[in-house]
Amino acid sequence: MLLPEGVLINGLTGEVSPDTGKYTKRLSELREVFQDRAELDRMVATEGDPVVYEVIEYKKEGSDLFFGTTTMEAGNVGGEYFMTRGHFHQRRDMGEVYYTQSGHGVLLLESRDGETRVVRMEPGVCAFIPPDWAHRSINVGTEKLVFVWVCNVEAGHDYGDILKRGMRKVVVDRDGADVIVDNPRYAA
Ligand code: PA5
Ligand code: NI
User: Which chain positions lie within coiled-coil regions (predicted)?
Assistant: First the structure.
């Protein structure tokens, strides 16, 4: 029988206690994600392959739900802010919740038929991600962006489309402000 449990989440560091697993994504693992690959290669070579984000999860065998944190570092690659890979869920009938704890971000969403929506990620904002909307989080601030996500264990990740084509919009730094522009490399 599964037993209830309180899990401590540090909203500034993303630490989850207890956790059941974690992974880190470094810049070199996100080569397809950013536009300026020469700059990415330079950063990997000269800045020690910086961490872009870390995911920590709490998942119990036999449960329908799981949750965890994503902690994103601040930074950009040639003006394009640090971001997650972005994905649809394999299960098209399953959405997700993102609850921002600290930092400043943009949640970029794209429906299957190509509509773009943005939800600002600010502390206290709980974002509803409906089923079948691709979602990518982007740290547009100067500090860590920490958010809690809650999802069905069967949702799964489908990275294929977004990795291949990108999303229709990108979020870039223009004189210190985050601006959403058309993705010049988007391939329909
Ligand atoms: O399930 C989610 O949406 C999150 O846990 C993400 O997986 C996490 O933020 C990392 O993003 P991605 O999986 O797009 O690299
Ligand atoms: Ni998701």
Answer: none
Q: Is 75 exposed, middle or buried (0-12, 13-18, 19+ CB in 10 A)?
A: middle
Ligand 1 atom closest to Cα of 129?
3
Per-residue pLDDT tens digits for 35-47: 999 999 999 999 9
Query: Ligand 2 centroid vs 133 CA: distance in angstroms?
Result: 9
For residue 84, the CA-to-ligand 1 centroid distance in Å is 7
Give this complex's ipTM. Answer: 0.98
What gap in Å lies between CA 84 and CA 171, rounded to an integer? 12
Q: What is the Cα–Cα distance from 144 to 5, expressed in whole angstroms? A: 27
For residue 121, the CA-to-ligand 1 centroid distance in Å is 15
CATH second-level architecture of 8-182? Sandwich (2.60)
Is pLDDT at 188 greater than 80 in this prediction?
Answer: no
- The three-state secondary structure class of 145 is strand
Ligand 1: atom nearest CA of 68 is: 5
CB half-sphere exposure, 45, CA atoms < 13 A: 6
- How far, in Å, is the centroid of ligand 1 from the Cα of 2? 25
Rounded CA gap, 80 and 32, in Å? Answer: 13
List all residues whose CB is within 6 A of at least one atom of ligand 1: 55, 70, 84-87, 96, 135, 137, 149, 151, 157
Compute the distance between CA of residue 119 and CA of residue 98 in angstroms, rounded to an integer.
Answer: 10
